[in-house]
Amino acid sequence: MSNYNPKSMKAEEFISHEEILKTIEYAEKNKRNVELIDSILEKARPKQGEFGFHCEGLSHREASVLLACDIPEKIEKMYSLAKEIKKALYGNRIVLFAPLYLSNYCINSCVYCPYHTQNKSICRKKLTQEEIRDEVIALQDMGHKRLALEAGEHPKMNPIEYILESIKTIYSVHHKNGAIRRVNVNIAATTVENYKKLKEAGIGTYILFQETYHKESYKKLHPAGPKSDYAYHTEAMDRAMEAGIDDVGLGVLFGLEGYKYEFAGLLMHAEHLEAAFGVGPHTISVPRIKRAADIDPTVFDNGIDDETFAKIIACIRIAVPYTGMIMSTRESENVRSRVLELGISQISGASRTSVGGYTEPLRPHETEQFDVSDQRTLDEVVYWLMTLGHIPSFCTACYIEGRTGDRFMSLCKTGQILNCCHPNALMTLTEYLVDYASEKTKKLGFEIIEKELSRIPKDKVRDIAKRNIEEIKNDNRRNFRF
Ligand code: SAM
Which of 125, 267, 276, 467 has the fewest CB atoms within 10 Å, counting from its CB? Predict the structure, then answer.
């Protein structure tokens, strides 16, 4: 092992099929091993340290035992632990964002995705820079500050230059008090050179879903096009990190393969990035396959029910406590209510998955990527979050202050989140309430902010936050942040 270098590992080494099978077998064998399960839960419990809570996390094997466990009493314990970790490390904040679909032109053949090249029933569209500007104004007028850019893979129609120009356009739009302060990007796997260009363009997180870690299934699900190269796709995050992007977002599309396989694969991928670059993934997304033009989700036999979905989220929260978790509007209000407290830290709100959907909302959804289950407005989502005890946050401060990668992790690990993210959440919520909220949302929001201010531990930080909130209410905008 003397020449062990995780940076030079290939996809099939860090996502070892044999190790995943052994993990599933080990988990199955131990799923009722009460002593082992208790010791795993104990290991993962938040411990009080000098600066706040610290969590150790779990290995993919340990976490897989929890996922396999079918003892109701232990599952309840897992849920309580996931809630405890979420509360200790993230508090009650939920960060809001919206996807922005730039283009659905695609040369891939992913069998689950309506963008697949053979699909003639979908209307193809690519936004011009003028149209992007209009979409961004519509998003700013809702109150959004953070976007996730989405595009199909098409070197001619959507080359990297188009993506870079679009990012520039998005950051340049300032409508009334609006601004997009963080653009995350979900585009196909690309080269180190292109990742460097994305980094220079000022992206936040680079997100790429693995779809499935199972190589054989991957091949069947991606029969043609550049995305059919399993190794190139799986090693994308290594290239992104090599290019200097230190916030990367993982995910699998649940429903394509067995969830236990995907779960172990996700955690092994996270372990690999931590070993190779000293920082794990910034986020993990948990999309489930949905109906779309030419796509019937029932033909994929690995669909997971809501209970399993909740268990997966709880187990991810316990296993990788410092990795944020993202849930999209693929999920309904009911499901979202249930799993938010189990570990989700970011959700999308008022999403349109069609190209141009924010400016032409009444048009039939002929360019949509998938059906949206949560159809509420952003104001409704913000109000609903607050009634459930969450603080909607529009904060992008870490990104602006350069607290990405291991610098963000150290903020988490030293327990400074309550002195930093909490006041930032309250200040950005104030901005939202003043600029965009309905009277009902405003009233509830200001009551909650008043109460939440008292939870900021440091007197000095609390005083500054209070003063800044008053300034924002008096329409003095200086992008206050900690
Ligand atoms: N072209 C990029 C790529 O290949 O990764 C971005 C892909 S797409 C715009 C974003 C994600 O949508 C995909 O990675 C996939 O997981 C998800 N997706 C595709 N079809 C879906 C469906 N029918 N239901 C739910 N999610 C889907």
Answer: 467
302-340 per-position pLDDT tens digit: 999 999 999 999 999 999 999 999 999 999 999 999 999
Q: For the chain, report the end-to-end CA distance as a whole number of angstroms.
A: 44
Q: Other CB atoms closer than 10 Å to residue 449's CB: what's the count? A: 20
Please identify, in words, the CATH class of the domain defined by 92-375.
alpha beta
* Crossing angle for the helix pair 417-436 and 378-387, to the nearest 10 degrees: 130
Question: How far apart, in Å, are the Cα atoms of 128 and each of 48, 103, 142, 169, 240?
Answer: 52, 10, 21, 10, 27
Label residues 275-296 b or e (16+ Cβ within 10 Å = b): ebbebbbbbbbbbbbbebbebe
**Span from the CA of 108 to the centroid of ligand 1 (angstroms):** 11
**pTM of the full predicted structure?**
0.96
Ligand 1 neighbours by CB, cut-off 6 Å: 112-113, 150, 152-153, 186-188, 208-209, 211, 227, 253, 287, 289-290, 292, 295, 330, 369-370
For ligand 1, the distance from its centroid to the CA atom of residue 438, given in whole angstroms, is: 33
Q: Report how far residue 28's alpha carbon sits from residue 151's, in angstroms, rounded to the nearest whole number.
A: 39
Q: CA Rg, the chain, in Å?
A: 22
Q: How far is the CA of 47 from the centre of ligand 1 (A)?
A: 38
Of ligand 1's listed atoms, the one at least distance from the Cα of 252 is: 16
